[in-house]
Write a structure and sequence with these properties.
By secondary structure, the chain is of the alpha/beta class. It contains 5 helices and 5 strands. It starts with a strand and ends with a helix. InterPro entries: SpoIIAA-like (IPR021866), SpoIIAA-like_sf (IPR038396), STAS_dom_sf (IPR036513).
C-alpha cells in the first residue's frame, strides 16, 4: 500500500510505502499524485518513507514514466528507511527513485531531519513555480 502523507503541501509530496507494493498501488496512487503535483507546481520535492516496505523485487514498474522529461521536475528526494534499505538502494533501481534529482537517505529515527531538508530553501521553489505559471 502507498499512502499520501498528511504533511504533503503544494510542491512537497510525501508518501509512506507499507508492506507489499503492487503495480496498481504504483500506477493508481503514487504516480497520479506525483503527476498532479508536477502539473500544478512545476518543481516537486518528494519524501518517501520505506521503513515498512516489504517489496524488494518490484524494480522500476513504470520506466516509461521515469524516462519521461517530467521527472526532471523532481528537484529533491528524501528517502527514509533502515540500514538494510540504505544498503540495498546502493545496488538496485527502485520505482521511487528518480534520476537527475538531489537524493538523500535518512534513517527512520531522523525523519524530522528528512522533512527539514526537503523543505530547505522553499522560497526559491515558490519563485520557480511562478515562472511555470
Amino acid at each position: 500500500m502507498i499512502e499520501l502523507l498528511p504533511e504533503s503541501r503544494g510542491c512537497l509530496v510525501g508518501f509512506q510505502f507499507v508492506g507489499e507494493i503492487t503495480s496498481e498501488d504504483y500506477t493508481e496512487d503514487f504516480m497520479p499524485a506525483l503527476r498532479r503535483a508536477i502539473e500544478n507546481f512545476g518543481v516537486v520535492r518528494l519524501f518517501v518513507d520505506i521503513s515498512d516496505l516489504q517489496s524488494e523485487g518490484v524494480g522500476a514498474m513504470d520506466d516509461d514514466v521515469r524516462g519521461d522529461s517530467r521527472v526532471l521536475y523532481i528537484e529533491r528526494q528524501a528517502i527514509v528507511g533502515d540500514e538494510e534499505w540504505e544498503r540495498k538502494l546502493n545496488y538496485v533501481d527502485h520505482f521511487f527513485i528518480f534520476p537527475n534529482s538531489d537524493l538523500r537517505f535518512f534513517r527512520k529515527n531522523c525523519e524530522q531531519d528528512a522533512w527539514d531538508w526537503i523543505r530547505e530553501g522553499m522560497p526559491q521553489i515558490r519563485r520557480m513555480q511562478a515562472a511555470f505559471q
